[in-house]
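2 proteins. here.
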Amino acid sequence: MPVFDEKQEELEHYETMMGVPRGRLAVALDSITDAMALVGQHGVYCQSQRWPGKPVMDIQIVMKALSDAKELIQNVMEELKKTKSF
């Protein structure tokens, strides 16, 4: 199912509030946040043997990538807000 069908209600809500570009970024940000929560839960059960209390390396890498993507999206949303390009 295409994302525009699957997330139709969320897209309409955020696009109405923020404009199309920022609204779509907000939905993407929510999806990334949800993915981070799921990966974080998985990391609780997959602990590193080398570093007790830390998730295994692949989970750390995925969390870093998601965190970086989230930061970039937040920055773009702020820039769009400043320039009123929505």
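next one coming up
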Amino acid sequence: MHTGQNQEGAAFFHQLPYEDQLNMVWRQGKLLEARRIPGFWLHLYAVNAFFVEMWICQRRYDVELVRVLANTNELEPYIDKISLTGLFSY
């Protein structure tokens, strides 16, 4: 993953209104993995050249949080379950 491209894409994403962030994830994102923690399903998406985690409330089925994973340490819970091979093409 190219760091410059990742940061530019993430910066653009952060500037979008919440609804546009959701639309971008659903239209351009590739679901890599889903996991469960108490009260939430967490979905990890690859969007362009960065990763987005979507928190979905288990009771209401609402998206409560959309966040860009800023560093590789945040991918730790997913690393053993996903393959990044061929995900990004340059």
